[in-house]
Amino acid sequence: MSKSVVAVVPAAGQGTRMGTATRKQYLTLGGLPLLVFSLNILQQIQSIREIILTVPENDRDYCWCDIVKPFGLEKVTQIVAGGQRRQDSVRNALFAISDPPDLVLIHDGVRPFIDDHIVENSISYAERTGAAVVAMPIHDTVKRVDAEHVIQETLNREELWHIQTPQTFRYDWLIDAHHRAQQEQWEVTDDAALIERMGYPVSVVEGSCFNIKITRPDDLIFGESILNRGKPNP
Fold it and tell me: What whole-number distance in Å separates Cα of residue 71 and Cα of residue 40?
């Protein structure tokens, strides 16, 4: 039997690296707000019963009126105020869930080019293993350097993957991990790191080179080129 899934979309970042007056999650790509792309894909996944979006507190009304309602994103049931860090935003969304699902899928709001196949693979792996993250193998040579920019060692690239989203976890594992992180003041850059600290295994699902995160101005240019090469609009 297919498990129930709640999707959490953190989009509460300030976007300082983008250098624009408008927060990056609301910038347009192909004439559409970035947020619409990922929300629309998640909306179409049958096993996802609802989507919880996190944004800055003052943006909640804007997102309801200018993004969720106009684009018919009916699975977005809540827009929750985000926190100072990404992990705070995810925790706020988790604590807002009233009816615990089997799985929670977390996808960055500024990764517009995810596709349904990758989302469904992430869910399928998590159903079997309890935790799955989308990632791409690293093909470049990677070196570890010190504070003075002196190379310390060359890492084995066969063991290295570039982590993306979505990341999908058992709800009970994830909520316990966030409670523990709050108690022990863990600070991480993704939810998989919390699950790892709890001692649970995390599987890797191969993602896509198109699944980019829009962070800097150059990323918007790359995103437009992806659209121009035929990646579908919502």
Answer: 8
189-207 pLDDT, tens digit per residue, is 999 999 999 999 999 999 9
Cβ pair 94, 212 in contact under 8 A: no
- CATH assignment of 5-228? 3.90.550.10
| pLDDT digit string, tens, across residues 45-81 | 999 999 999 999 999 999 999 999 999 999 999 999 9
Q: Which two tokens stand for residue 20?
A: 């624009």
Instruction: Please report, for the chain, the start and end positions of each structural domain, with discontinuous segments joined by +.
Output: 5-228
Bridge partners of 6? 50, 104
Asked if residue 30 lies in contact with residue 128, where contact means CB atoms within 8 angstroms, the answer is: no
Q: Characterize the bridge pairing of strands 48-55 and 76-81.
A: parallel
pLDDT at 231: 52
Comparing CA positions, the residue from 44, 33, 31, 114 lying closest to residue 67 is 33
Contact 131, 203 (CB under 8 A): yes
The pTM assigned to this predicted structure is 0.91
In the chain, the amino acid numbered 48 is I
Angstrom distance (rounded) from CA 128 to CA 220: 36
**What are the residues whose beta carbons fall under 8 Å from the beta carbon of 184, sequence distance 6 or more?**
none
